Amino acid sequence: MSSDHRHDTCANVSRKIAQSCLLTRTRQISRVLTAIYDEALRPFGVNASQFTLLVLIMEFGPLSRATLGRKNHHDRSTLTRNLQPLVAQGWVVEGMPGDDGRSRPLSLTKQGKALLHDAASAWSAAQSKAQSLLGEAGANALMGIAGDLPTRIS
């Protein structure tokens, strides 16, 4: 096979992937939406990923890091990186080890709850901007897809 033929074949494969890759498209959407929420939440000293963790801890806490990671589809190192500033700022606290002697349940502090309350209007503004960008059908489709995701990917 000539190098010209390999180049043409590779270019065709590349073009097909560039035009139809679901991963590429969802990552692009994710980056755009993340920027919208990050910008809105910046005055409160949190980014979108950290804010999501605050919400999940409020909704489902106290809960272990492992459970929080599963709920948000985070690997351990990403979860630790996003959780660390929340603990350092005093917005999240880790409790005493549980019955297993290892897991330490996460919960929001009074300051964390206040932050969540104070930043709610900024989140709401970002939510409106994101919904406007996606349109009603797009926003509903994303929420439906997210709702159908499995807890664990094998």
UniProtKB/TrEMBL annotation:
InterPro entries: HTH_MarR-typ, MarR/SlyA-like, Tscrpt_reg_MarR-type_CS, WH-like_DNA-bd_sf, WH_DNA-bd_sf. It comes from the Bacteria. GO terms for biological process: response to stress. Residues 19-151 form the HTH marR-type domain. SUPFAM superfamilies: Winged helix' DNA-binding domain. SMART domains: HTH_MARR. GO terms for molecular function: DNA binding; DNA-binding transcription factor activity. Keywords: DNA-binding, Transcription, Transcription regulation. This is MarR family transcriptional regulator. It comes from Paraburkholderia hospita.
